[in-house]
Every structure is written in structure tokens, then in C-alpha cells.
Request: fold
Amino acid sequence: MSRRIVLVRHGQSTANVDHSLTCAIPGVPLSPLGERQVVRLAADWPAEYAPDTVWSSPMARAMRTAEPIAARYRLPVRVHPAGHEALIGTLHGSTDPADAALVATTFARWRDDPTPRLPGGEDGTDLVHRLRTVLLDVLADLPAGGTAVLVGHGTLFAVAVPRLAAGLSRHVPELPNAGRAVLEAPDTGTAGLIAARSEAPAADDTMDSERPLRVLCWAGDRRDEREGRA
Reply:
């Protein structure tokens, strides 16, 4: 047997609709479509991923996504303070298209080189270190054979997971809103389980065979297009 962590990106937020630069905590709420997505997400949750624990980012859109899943399984939502989306510093709240372009370009650059830093904000290495902390805490509290749900964010997962787990390209697309990915870990222990790859990894990555944390799947579901998940 093994333990599993089901990563869930939050439902569509108002910022996903208007493309605003609003990455501060607690952040923006879900859009009306996002509210429908998270209700359906919980209702359709597969029995094979029935959780023992439900964790969330401290951001409002993630906590709201976690609530229906936790309610279905009569579990509390455990909020991890390190699970938030990338912080964009002085660019938060800007309506300047040039600032939006800088954020998008920097997020894209982090796939290959996580060291560029946003003004007053984070770099990609910060995301890797934060998600490593979250995953270790989730696993430390997860029994053998158990499943945890972790609700978080598109850029956080897309930048950090390929550097913390085997089986995923650094250029994987972000999970769609309310989309899922599944990580698998050994049944016991966390020591040495998640060791971040070098902060500026070589193009030819040869470390996957040494990494017991593995990505089993990374996708939304077949109804993404119909529900407008993008």
C-alpha cells in the first residue's frame, strides 16, 4: 500500500475572470461558475480518493473549494499557512497591462529557472520551499494507506511539484480550475522523502529514480470544456 495526496486547484475565482493582479492573502472569492464547480467537485468525488484529511491554502478561494469536500466526508478543513499562491509584491492590485505581462512572463520563466524575483514578492524557489513544507506536514499526519486532499493554486503546483516529485515535466500545464492531480508516497516516514531539486536544474533531469514521491496523474476531468474550466 501507499499514501496519496490529491492536489486540487481552487474553483474559478473572480480574478480568473477579470485577470486582475490580486494575489494577496486572503484574496478574491470564487466566481459564480467557481461556486458551481466546487459543489459538483465534492458531489462527484471518487470513492477511491475518499480522504482521511482535507487541507487548504489560507486563501479564500481555496478554502471555499475545500469546504464541500470536507463536509461530504465530515472532516474539518485544515489550513496550512504556507500553501498560498505566489506573492507578487508591489504588483498586487495593479491594473497596468505591463505589470500583468511581467507577472505572466516571470511565472513562465520559473519553469526552467526559478530564481527571478518579482518586485517585493517571491521567486520560484520560494514556491518550491513552501510546498515542500506543506507536503511534509500533510504526510506527517497521514496514516499508512491514507489519502489527503490539498487544495491550492495553479502556479504553486505547476512550478513546485515537478521539482518535488518524479514523473512530471517542468512544462506541465497548470491544473484547470477544480482540476485534480494525484501524488503517491511510501506508507511510512517523511525523512528524505522530498528533497527539492537544484534551484536552477539542468535541462537533463536524472533524479526521478531517486524520488519516492511520484505523480500518478495530472489532469482535470472530461467535463472541463463543458463547464468552462480553463
